[in-house]
Amino acid sequence: MDENLIDYYARLLFDYHFLQQPLQKADCIFVLGSHDPSVADYAAQLYNEGFAPYIIFSGGVVRPVGELRNTVPKTEAEAFFDIAISRGVPAEAILLENEATNTGANFICTKKLLQEKNLNFKRFILVQKPYMIRRTYATAMVQFKEFDFVVSALPDTYDSYIARCLAEGITKERVISNMTGDLQRLKIYPDKGFLIAMDIPEEVWSAYERLLELGFEGRMAS
């Protein structure tokens, strides 16, 4: 395979997925589960910079040893908690949601947690990986529409993000397959009511189709 060509197509998807909104202070930083530990690093950074007084980590998927810098299998929320504590976030500022196993459930289970804890948060910063920001936004517009929110991720280019992932043991192939899977979901999930429709430029869709032809289809929804 021509790696330069793969990177060209993948960069188009990355730049499209990374919907960027200006940060604003909030009541809570709401972090959706992920296999990428830099998501927790960024949430801790936002907390330490005073953007919100609380963090919610949502994610019930149990990750194997080492995948989120963990030494024993842990849920995404639990592993993110450890990372945030190591970054100086006090435990009393963190809430854990350990049931969600997909993006929609992150929102549903977190709203349940807020109700159970009688927390009247109204403004949120939603944090995810750069290439999941557009789908996070589109899903929140359905599942979290009663709240004010912005979506955010650690600032990265495609190249710097891939380098960061490789340093964490996350392969480029996994990242690209995740990006094609997310674009497919943006296309088909509006009809299921899971998220709002988003315009997908022809150039981005063509890049997606080419990446599928090259074998990056490991995370397609059925």
UniProtKB/TrEMBL annotation:
Gene3D superfamilies assigned to the protein according to its UniProt record, in alphabetical order: HUPs
Cross-referenced InterPro entries: Cell_Envelope_Assoc (IPR051599), DUF218 (IPR003848), Rossmann-like_a/b/a_fold (IPR014729)
Domain DUF218: 27-153
One Gene Ontology cellular component: plasma membrane
PANTHER family: DUF218 DOMAIN-CONTAINING PROTEIN, INNER MEMBRANE PROTEIN, PROBABLE PERMEASE
Protein name: YdcF family protein
Species whose genome carries this gene: Emticicia agri
